[in-house]
Amino acid sequence: MGTFRFNAWQIELTTRCPLRCTMCIKDTYRDWHRRDMAMEDFLKIVPYLRYVHTAVLEGWGESLMHPHLLDIIGLVKKQGCEVGFVTSGYGLDEDLIIKLIEAGIDFIGFSISGATDKTHNSIRVNSDFYNLVGSIKAFNTCIAENNLKKPKIHIVYLMLTENILEMPAVIRLAADTGVKEVVFINITHITNDRQDREKVFICQVHEEQPYRGIIDETIKAAKRLKIKINLPGMTAGDVALCSENPLENLYISSEGEVSPCVYLYPPIPDDFKRIFCGKEHTVNKVSFGNIFNEDMETIWNKKGYLDFRGRFYERKKKMEELYNLILEPKRIRDMTLPEPPEPCKTCHKILGV
To answer: In whole angstroms, what is the distance from residue 123 CA to residue 13 CA?
Structure first.
């Protein structure tokens, strides 16, 4: 890979998950491909990780279900790469917490979808709110008792119409469990009408955001309790580069397929449905090669992949030009960003939400 270094590789270890979350695309698709990445296949990825700052070991499944998770974490650490994942906490107990820490995990995020058991359990079906909260407390107790700096623990909170009013309470929950950071996210990949009604961001630029009050209350609670928060945009805008940042990051499926991001290669048939700002679209899965069979440098430099990233380079360059014209509003009005790659045109991420 020469001297180029990646920011992050998202590596899907498994597509298996015991939960039936209402906001997951699995709620729409029944022909889900369930598989674990074989250890001998993961070993083919390992040599490249010395060019990667962070390995995020997650995809469309629950990483804790992979039978060789602890060994994989150790292999990643030996390459000088930071490693972690987001989890539902399913099956996590004190023994596994200790083993994860001993393996060298750097960060772990816990997916919570409500500040009460009723809300959380109704969204993340088959999850248990109190067990999850207990696991977070146990993790932080172990870290504190052993005076450890890692892993860093954070909460990931998916904002929906049915749980957004509990955002300030989630900040208090974080403080009570010893968590210092909460990452709020929007539902990005919408596949059915119910999920579309659950989104809380606004696609229409001039429409009023109805949840401004609760968001302001959340920000105040975070400042008061000294909790770091990360909030996405709540109204559609025009961003040069989405938060997945395909210029520095990539996604590897459990089958070894290399894609710009997780949302372009779900474990379902080749084409899949997306509801984008209320309109239904069909999108083809995107892969530029298979890392189990091809050299990564060859994949990264394929014309199709270069063209895909080139669109974002052009958008990024144009956005920089717009910033330089901040004192010339007329010229700014006359400038627009180049189109994103075709499969990204109907992704809410490109709206900055």
So the answer is: 24
Burial of 19 (0-12, 13-18, 19+ CB in 10 A): middle
Other Cβ atoms within 10 Å of 335 Cβ, number: 12
C-beta separation of 15 from 60 below 8 A: yes
How confident is the model at residue 136, as a pLDDT? 96
Could you tell me what percentage of the chain is helix, strand and coil, using 3-state DSSP and rounding each to the nearest 5?
Answer: 40, 20, 40
**Residues 41 and 256: beta-carbon distance below 8 Å:** yes
Other CB atoms within 10 A of residue 162 CB: 17
Dist CA 88 CA 18 (whole Å):
10
pTM: 0.94
Region 43-49 average pLDDT: 97
Q: Is the pLDDT of residue 224 over 60?
A: yes
Q: Contact at 8 Å (CB) between 262 and 60?
A: yes
Region 61-88: mean pLDDT is 97
Cα–Cα distance for residue pair 92/64, rounded to 1 Å:
8
What is the per-residue pLDDT across 149-163, written as a single tens digit (0 to 9) for each?
899 999 999 999 999
Residue 130 to residue 146: CA distance in whole angstroms: 24
Q: Taking residues 345-353, what's their average pLDDT?
A: 93
Residue 284 is which amino acid? N
**Dihedrals phi, psi of 319, to nearest 5 degrees:** -65, -40
Specify whether the CB–CB gap between 251 and 305 falls below 8 A: no
pLDDT digits (tens, 9 = 90+) for 87-103: 999 989 999 999 999 99
Question: Is 59:12 a contact under the CB 8 Å cutoff?
Answer: yes
Tokens of residue 132, six digits: 């999850």
Identify the pLDDT of residue 303.
98
Closest CA to 112 of 104, 122, 102: 122
Per-residue exposure over 183-222, b if at least 16 CB sit within 10 Å of its own CB, e if not? bbbbbbbbbbeebbebbbbbeeeeeeeebeebbeebeebb
Q: Give dist(CA 348, CA 92) in Å, integer.
A: 32
